[in-house]
Amino acid sequence: MRTFILLAALSLTACGFHLRGSQVHDMAFAFKSLYLKAPAETPFVTDLRTALSSNKVALTASAEAAELVLEVVSEQTNKNILSLSGGGRVREYQLIYRVSLRAYDNKQIDWLPPEEIMLTRILAYDDAQILAKEQEEAQLYRDMRTDAVGQAIRRLNRAKPQP
Protein backbone atom coordinates (compact mmCIF):
# COMPACT_ATOMS: atom_id res chain seq x y z
CA MET A 1 0.00 0.00 0.00
CA ARG A 2 2.82 2.40 0.86
CA THR A 3 4.57 1.72 -2.42
CA PHE A 4 1.36 2.46 -4.31
CA ILE A 5 0.97 5.82 -2.56
CA LEU A 6 4.62 6.62 -3.20
CA LEU A 7 4.29 5.71 -6.89
CA ALA A 8 1.14 7.81 -7.21
CA ALA A 9 2.87 10.82 -5.64
CA LEU A 10 5.91 10.41 -7.87
CA SER A 11 3.78 10.12 -11.00
CA LEU A 12 1.98 13.36 -10.13
CA THR A 13 5.26 15.23 -9.77
CA ALA A 14 6.65 13.70 -12.95
CA CYS A 15 3.69 14.84 -15.04
CA GLY A 16 4.13 18.51 -14.07
CA PHE A 17 1.23 18.61 -11.63
CA HIS A 18 1.11 21.71 -9.44
CA LEU A 19 -1.51 23.29 -7.24
CA ARG A 20 -3.48 26.08 -8.82
CA GLY A 21 -1.97 29.44 -7.84
CA SER A 22 1.28 27.91 -6.61
CA GLN A 23 3.19 29.07 -9.70
CA VAL A 24 4.16 32.71 -10.13
CA HIS A 25 3.28 32.55 -13.83
CA ASP A 26 -0.16 32.82 -15.44
CA MET A 27 -1.94 34.89 -12.78
CA ALA A 28 -4.74 37.33 -13.49
CA PHE A 29 -4.37 40.79 -11.99
CA ALA A 30 -6.94 43.54 -11.37
CA PHE A 31 -4.71 45.96 -13.31
CA LYS A 32 -3.06 45.89 -16.71
CA SER A 33 -0.13 48.29 -16.32
CA LEU A 34 2.28 48.96 -13.49
CA TYR A 35 5.10 51.34 -12.68
CA LEU A 36 7.81 49.81 -10.51
CA LYS A 37 9.31 52.47 -8.25
CA ALA A 38 12.53 51.35 -6.58
CA PRO A 39 15.45 53.17 -4.96
CA ALA A 40 17.96 51.09 -6.98
CA GLU A 41 18.07 48.34 -9.59
CA THR A 42 18.82 45.45 -7.23
CA PRO A 43 18.61 41.75 -8.13
CA PHE A 44 15.21 41.66 -6.36
CA VAL A 45 13.88 44.47 -8.57
CA THR A 46 15.25 42.77 -11.69
CA ASP A 47 13.64 39.45 -10.73
CA LEU A 48 10.36 41.23 -9.93
CA ARG A 49 10.36 42.96 -13.35
CA THR A 50 10.93 39.59 -15.02
CA ALA A 51 8.10 37.95 -13.06
CA LEU A 52 5.71 40.80 -13.85
CA SER A 53 6.60 40.70 -17.55
CA SER A 54 6.09 36.94 -17.67
CA ASN A 55 2.61 37.50 -16.23
CA LYS A 56 1.84 39.93 -19.08
CA VAL A 57 1.78 43.05 -16.88
CA ALA A 58 2.79 46.07 -18.94
CA LEU A 59 5.60 47.92 -17.18
CA THR A 60 5.46 51.65 -17.88
CA ALA A 61 8.21 54.26 -17.85
CA SER A 62 6.27 56.73 -15.68
CA ALA A 63 3.82 56.54 -12.79
CA GLU A 64 1.28 58.69 -14.65
CA ALA A 65 0.98 56.16 -17.49
CA ALA A 66 0.34 53.21 -15.15
CA GLU A 67 -2.82 51.98 -13.46
CA LEU A 68 -0.84 50.98 -10.39
CA VAL A 69 2.47 52.00 -8.79
CA LEU A 70 4.40 49.35 -6.89
CA GLU A 71 6.96 50.98 -4.62
CA VAL A 72 9.83 48.98 -3.20
CA VAL A 73 10.25 50.99 0.00
CA SER A 74 13.27 49.11 1.32
CA GLU A 75 15.30 45.93 0.93
CA GLN A 76 17.64 44.66 3.63
CA THR A 77 19.79 41.65 4.41
CA ASN A 78 21.02 40.86 7.92
CA LYS A 79 23.21 38.15 9.39
CA ASN A 80 23.01 37.41 13.11
CA ILE A 81 24.99 34.95 15.19
CA LEU A 82 22.56 32.30 16.37
CA SER A 83 24.80 29.98 18.41
CA LEU A 84 28.40 29.62 19.52
CA SER A 85 30.50 26.56 20.31
CA GLY A 86 32.11 26.02 23.71
CA GLY A 87 35.32 27.55 22.33
CA GLY A 88 33.53 30.74 21.29
CA ARG A 89 33.37 29.94 17.57
CA VAL A 90 30.26 30.55 15.53
CA ARG A 91 28.18 27.42 14.90
CA GLU A 92 25.09 28.91 13.27
CA TYR A 93 24.02 32.15 11.68
CA GLN A 94 20.51 33.41 11.11
CA LEU A 95 20.14 35.03 7.68
CA ILE A 96 17.33 37.59 7.36
CA TYR A 97 15.97 39.07 4.14
CA ARG A 98 13.39 41.89 4.31
CA VAL A 99 11.56 43.71 1.57
CA SER A 100 8.99 46.40 2.22
CA LEU A 101 6.40 47.06 -0.53
CA ARG A 102 3.49 49.41 -1.14
CA ALA A 103 1.07 49.58 -4.07
CA TYR A 104 -1.20 52.53 -4.89
CA ASP A 105 -2.96 54.04 -7.89
CA ASN A 106 -2.74 57.52 -9.45
CA LYS A 107 -5.25 58.88 -6.91
CA GLN A 108 -2.95 57.73 -4.06
CA ILE A 109 -5.47 55.07 -3.00
CA ASP A 110 -3.66 52.12 -1.45
CA TRP A 111 -4.12 48.77 -3.15
CA LEU A 112 -1.56 47.16 -0.87
CA PRO A 113 -0.83 49.07 2.32
CA PRO A 114 2.84 49.17 3.31
CA GLU A 115 3.75 45.53 3.96
CA GLU A 116 6.97 43.79 4.81
CA ILE A 117 8.05 40.42 3.49
CA MET A 118 10.51 38.87 5.94
CA LEU A 119 12.28 35.57 5.32
CA THR A 120 14.80 33.81 7.54
CA ARG A 121 17.13 30.87 7.05
CA ILE A 122 19.58 29.12 9.36
CA LEU A 123 23.15 28.64 8.12
CA ALA A 124 25.26 26.03 9.94
CA TYR A 125 28.82 27.32 9.93
CA ASP A 126 32.20 25.55 9.98
CA ASP A 127 35.57 27.35 9.96
CA ALA A 128 37.11 24.48 7.99
CA GLN A 129 34.77 25.13 5.02
CA ILE A 130 34.83 28.91 4.67
CA LEU A 131 34.48 29.09 0.86
CA ALA A 132 31.72 26.47 0.75
CA LYS A 133 29.80 28.26 3.50
CA GLU A 134 30.12 31.60 1.68
CA GLN A 135 28.65 29.99 -1.43
CA GLU A 136 25.90 28.38 0.63
CA GLU A 137 25.09 31.75 2.19
CA ALA A 138 24.88 33.39 -1.24
CA GLN A 139 22.59 30.58 -2.44
CA LEU A 140 20.33 30.98 0.61
CA TYR A 141 20.02 34.72 -0.08
CA ARG A 142 19.17 33.96 -3.75
CA ASP A 143 16.50 31.48 -2.62
CA MET A 144 15.04 34.01 -0.17
CA ARG A 145 14.97 36.65 -2.92
CA THR A 146 13.12 34.24 -5.21
CA ASP A 147 10.63 33.48 -2.42
CA ALA A 148 10.15 37.22 -1.82
CA VAL A 149 9.44 37.82 -5.51
CA GLY A 150 6.84 35.03 -5.47
CA GLN A 151 5.19 36.47 -2.36
CA ALA A 152 5.14 39.95 -3.91
CA ILE A 153 3.47 38.59 -7.07
CA ARG A 154 0.87 36.68 -5.05
CA ARG A 155 0.12 39.79 -2.98
CA LEU A 156 -0.29 41.84 -6.15
CA ASN A 157 -2.60 39.14 -7.48
CA ARG A 158 -5.02 39.74 -4.62
CA ALA A 159 -4.54 43.53 -4.54
CA LYS A 160 -7.68 45.64 -4.78
CA PRO A 161 -8.36 49.30 -4.01
CA GLN A 162 -8.77 49.77 -0.25
CA PRO A 163 -12.02 51.49 0.78
Write a short abstract of this structure.
The protein is an alpha/beta fold and about 160 residues long. The protein is built from 3 helices and 5 strands, in the order αβαββββα.
Structure commentary:
The chain is an alpha/beta fold. The protein is built from three helices and five strands. Helix 2 packs across helix 3. It has a single domain, classed as Lipoprotein like domain (Double Stranded RNA Binding Domain). The protein has helices spanning 2-14, 43-54, 130-157; strands spanning 33-37, 58-59, 68-84, 90-104, 110-124. It is 33% helix and 33% strand.
CATH superfamily: Lipoprotein like domain
**Mass-distribution shape:** extended
How many discrete domains?
1
Summed up, the helix count is 3
Indicate the proportion of strand residues: 25-35%
**How would you characterize the largest beta sheet?**
5 strands, mixed
CATH class, anyone?
Answer: Alpha Beta
Report Rg.
20 Å
Based on helices, strands and strand pairing, what is the structural class?
alpha/beta
Q: Looking at CATH, which topology would you report?
A: Double Stranded RNA Binding Domain
Total beta strand runs: 5
* Order of neighbouring strands in the sheet with most strands: 2-1-3-4-5
Following the backbone from N to C, one meets helices and strands in this order, namely HEHEEEEH
- The CATH architecture can be given as 2-Layer Sandwich
Mean pLDDT: 88
Q: Point out poorly predicted stretches.
A: none
